[in-house]
Each structure stands twice: as structure tokens, then as C-alpha cells.
Amino acid sequence: MSIKKFVDIFKRSHNVVVGMLHLEALPGSPRNKLPMSKICDVALREAEIYVNAGLDAVMIENMHDVPYVKSSEFGPEVVAAMATVATKLRHEFPHTPMGIQILTTANKEALSIAKCVGLNFIRAEGLVFSHIGDEGWIDSNAGSLLRYQRTINAEDVLIFGDIKKKHCSHSVTSDIDISTTARALEFFLVDGAIVTGAETSSPADLQDFNDVSAAIQIPVLIGSGVTKSNVHKFLSANGLVIGSHFKTDGIWYNGVDQARVEAFMREINTLRQEMS
Q: Which domain of life is it from (predicted)?
């Protein structure tokens, strides 16, 4: 993918800030307590904080649906619920770049929602090689996903893929370093690579990020652990996907904290001005 397609969507080539909307537990998941109307209300309220603070994009994810299961094991209610929230967000914020991830490895489901609702990108797991997650063995799926993308004419939806992703064991591919994994992602026609730390809120290793950036021409995003205090290290990344740092006390399961969001955006905007 040329960087032009990335810039056409996000209006900048580097340090695009993507705010995570961790949806309240959806129907069918063990912690679900709210009706869909309330789940949508929370998402809309938090999206408004992000948009008003000047973030470049938002992304929805069913992170409260613990314990996670692979897409073959959850019911159609997950897709229906995610599509409902996405539709309301797109209607309320028609010009904001938006993305979606559905846990776990529900890449086709996410792509179908993006296509139908008009979202701009998805975050996908398990695209190249295989790994073991909390949910068990995850097979690679880039080939089938991109064929599905062509089938539903969703090639305008960008696919960003995690490599050596957090919360997973990669011992089975320990002989393949992260740069080689990134090159495989690029070779398999994926639109961007996401580098993470070992778990949610853990910063990505700076050397991993530098190695991946040097290895591929497609965009590289940081997918965990970016904060106001360390963002200066990752300004050369094409994108910064931020969830935990924007929450009350910096804990992912809390609500979005407007003051933390605004403080972060003041910091990154200052850094952007210094770079220009």
C-alpha cells in the first residue's frame, strides 16, 4: 500500500492518534449488564470526547467481552451489536476516520461491518504465521481475509495487522524475528503493521519498532503502551493506537478521562509543531 492511501484517510502521514472505544460488555458475554441503547450511549459520549479533543481517528473493540473466544465460537449477536454501535457512531461523526476490531480473530466479521457501515480500517489478528493466544491456537488467515475483501468489494477498507502480538506465545515461531514477520505481512498485501508490547498498556519495544520500520515500506503503528510521557519516542510511527492511557487512572476498563485525553493532545501537538 502506498502511503498516499493512508494519508487520504487520516490527513497526515505520521503520528496519527487513534482513540480506542472499548465497548461495554455486549449481549451474550458474561459481563453484559447494559442494553444496547446504553452501550451505544457510552460509546457516543466517549467518541465525542475524542473528536472534540482533536484525535485523528477512533476505533471500536469488544474488549469487555471477557473471556474471549475465537470467532467460530461466538454467536451472531456479537456482529449485530458491533454493527449497531458502528452505525450510530458513523451517523453521529460522518467525517471522522473510524476502525473496528472484533475479538478474537473475527477479521472477516470486522471487515463486513466496515464495508456495510462505511468504516475506514480494521485491526486484524493472526494474519501471518501462527501463535498461541489466551483462546488457544490461532492460525494465519491473511490469504482468506484478502480474498474475502475482494469478494465483498471492500478494498477501500485498510487492514492493519498485529505482528508478534501482545497476550500471546510466539515460541513456535521463535526462529522468525519481528522484522521477518513484518516483511511477510507486507508480502501478503496487508496495509500496515502494528507493533505492541507484551500485554495491554505495555509499551512497544523501541528496537522492535525501529527494526520493523526499517524492514517494510507499509505504515507501522504502535498498538499499546503509548502515553503522554513516552509519545516522543514514537513520533515517527505512522499511527498510535491508544486506549489505556486515555482512561481514568490509565486503566483500560475505566471510562475515557477527558482531562487525560486533552493533556495528551496538547503534548503531541506541541511535539508536532517542534518537528515542523
A: Eukaryota
Distance in angstroms (rounded) separating the CA atoms of residues 175 and 147: 29
CA distance 166 to 271: 28
User: What superfamily would CATH give domain 3-275?
Assistant: Aldolase class I (3.20.20.70)
Contact 158, 115 (CB under 8 A): no
**Phi, psi (rounded to 5 degrees) for 260:** -65, -40
pLDDT in tens, 220-275: 999 999 999 999 999 999 999 999 999 999 999 999 999 999 999 999 999 999 99
Q: Quick one: what percent of the chain has pLDDT higher than 90?
A: 88
Query: What's residue 137's pLDDT?
Result: 82
Phi, psi of 105 (to 5 degrees): 55, 30
pTM of the entire predicted model: 0.96
Contacts with 271 (C-beta within 8 Å, 6 or more apart), sequence order: 15, 231, 232, 235
Residue type, 64: H
Residue 174, amino acid: S
